[in-house]
Specification:
This protein folds into two domains: about 15-105 and about 115-250, 3-Layer(aba) Sandwich (Aspartate Aminotransferase, domain 2), CATH 3.40.640.10; about 250-370, Aspartate Aminotransferase, domain 1, CATH 3.90.1150. It contains twelve helices and 14 strands. The chain has helices at about 15-35, 40-55, 65-75, 90-100, 120-125, 145-155, 205-215, 235-250, 250-270, 295-305, 335-340, 355-370, and strands spanning about 55-60, 80-85, 105, 130-135, 155-160, 170, 175, 180-185, 200-205, 220, 225, 280-285, 290, 345. The strands form four sheets. A seven-stranded mixed sheet has the order 1-9-8-5-4-2-3, with helices on both faces. Strands 7-6-12 form a three-stranded antiparallel sheet, with no helix packed on it. A two-stranded antiparallel ribbon has the order 10-11. Helix 2 (about 40-55) runs parallel beside helix 8 (about 235-250). The radius of gyration is 21 Å and the shape is globular.
């Protein structure tokens, strides 16, 4: 029988104990050099992560939101432009489009992967469309073959929001190495997370690399010499040192998440719910393991009673939220995303989670709806 103990949605304490001695040593070395901003660990992490992802360049930035906004700025997207994206994502994806003065155009998602539907993208491309921003949601890669073909056909920029998908693959290519830029978040809940805020932009373009590096540092091309209005968005040495350590074990961490996901699949088989599909070609990173069920509320109530960590991502798609009332979307406009918002719930999944804990999660679900 599974343990009756509470199960957290995320527990980083074990990981921290494993890494702290080596991490503290790297921090000590950085401190003795007096290098805390854009130092050796940032430079090395940029090279190591670019190599891992399969991109020519990687630029460390302050967070995943900045990664998206800097990409839009570097690609020249602004007032009067339209950017096609998904309503089924964290707010930052659309927020940055609005921040640069462009308009987000929401299209519906695929019911299985929860990723943006290329067929729906095709219907929304107009003369003012300047970019497509797919999201590799929950770690499931979007259909990048189809989306890349649309971007190329119509001369559109392609920005990958890979905030939740470090290490995922679309076909043989890791996400973030396919579009004009790839944007990552290292928020602590992510597959590759730091112990604070951090982000990364990847690109195969020398021109975009140079431009983004200026933008992240106040638009400066040299000390005190500024070519444009930029941002203060730099990954710091302390977080970069940690990310370098964690990157070494990235494939192992992905394997752990895959094993937990496989266990969930097996234990939940036969229940009145849908488990996450795997991409036909590629690899799911399982930043979140998200099921869907018309009995979602019963599962959530049982989780709350039994102290099982969970999350509902997302309770309302972005096109129906107050902030975007001006875009005139109505209930029923994007039915797949709207139905998903009523049925999804994400289960605990993290490095260090035991099979006993996963068994407890499944036991509570079976008791709730079995």
């Amino acid at each position: 029988m599974a343990s009756k103990k509470p199960v957290p949605m995320l527990d980083l304490s074990g990981e921290f104990e494993e890494l702290k001695a080596e991490w503290y040593s790297l921090i000590d070395k950085a401190g003795k050099k007096g290098a805390f901003i854009l130092g050796d660990n940032v430079t090395r992490f940029e090279k190591e992560s670019a190599r891992y992802i399969g991109a020519k360049h990687a630029i460390g930035v302050a967070n995943g939101t900045d990664a998206l906004q800097l990409s839009l700025r570097a690609l020249g997207i602004g007032k009067g432009d339209r950017v096609i994206t998904t309503p089924w994502t964290f707010f930052a994806t659309a927020e940055v489009i609005s921040e640069v003065g462009a308009t987000p155009v929401f299209v519906d998602i695929e019911p299985g992967s929860f990723c943006i539907d290329p067929e729906q993208i095709k219907k929304k491309i107009t003369k003012t469309t300047k970019a497509i921003m797919p999201v590799h949601i929950f770690g499931h890669p979007a259909n990048m073959d189809a989306i890349s073909a649309l971007a190329e056909e119509h001369g559109l920029a392609l920005i990958e929001d890979a905030a939740q998908a470090f290490g995922a693959k679309a076909g043989r290519q890791r996400v973030g190495g396919i579009g004009d830029t790839g944007c990552f978040s290292f928020y602590p809940t992510k597959v590759l997370g730091c112990y604070g805020d951090g982000g990364l932009i990847t690109t195969n373009s020398d021109e975009l690399n140079d431009h983004i590096r200026r933008l992240r540092n106040h638009g400066a091309s040299a000390p005190f010499m500024h070519e444009e209005i930029g941002y203060n968005s730099r990954l710091d040495e302390v977080q970069a040192a940690l990310l370098r350590l964690k990157l070494k074990g990235m494939n192992m961490m992905l394997d752990v998440r895959q094993r937990i996901a496989d266990y969930y699949d097996e234990q939940l088989d036969g229940l009145d719910l849908t488990t996450p599909p795997r991409p036909a070609k590629g690899r799911h990173a399982f930043n979140l393991y998200t099921i869907r069920s018309y009995q979602r509320d019963a599962i959530r109530e049982a989780f709350e009673e039994q102290k099982i960590g969970h999350s509902i991502c997302y309770p309302a798609p972005l096109h129906l939220q107050k902030v975007y009332e001006n875009l005139k979307y109505k209930s029923g406009s994007l039915p797949v995303a709207e139905q998903a918002s009523e049925e999804v719930i994400s289960l605990p999944i993290y490095h260090g989670m035991s099979q006993q804990q996963a068994a407890r999660v499944c036991e509570v679900i079976r008791e709730a709806i079995g």
